[in-house]
Design a protein that fits this description.
By secondary structure, this protein is mainly α. It has one domain. The chain has 2 helices and 2 strands. A hairpin with a 2-residue loop joins strand 1 and strand 2. The longest helix has 23 residues.
Length: about 70
């Protein structure tokens, strides 16, 4: 997991790539949660969204480490 990924000839840290993927995955997920009215039960939407991104980021990094 500590290796770099070459994207278009640019070396990027793998955790940075997984962070970008986690942010992109969280966008439709937050839209879906908002549409379903889930945020009525959440105390602080901003904190919940950050925790969602961090959880996705950790899950993606863990999956990448296994592969």
């Amino acid at each position: 997991m500590g290796e770099e990924l070459a994207i278009a000839g640019v070396l990027l840290p793998s955790l940075m790539v997984w962070a970008a993927v986690a942010v992109l995955l969280s966008l439709p997920l937050t839209w879906l949660l908002s549409t379903l009215g889930f945020y009525r039960f959440v105390w602080h939407r901003g904190l919940f969204d950050i925790c969602l991104v961090v959880s996705l980021w950790g899950g993606l990094a863990a999956l990448a480490a296994r592969i």
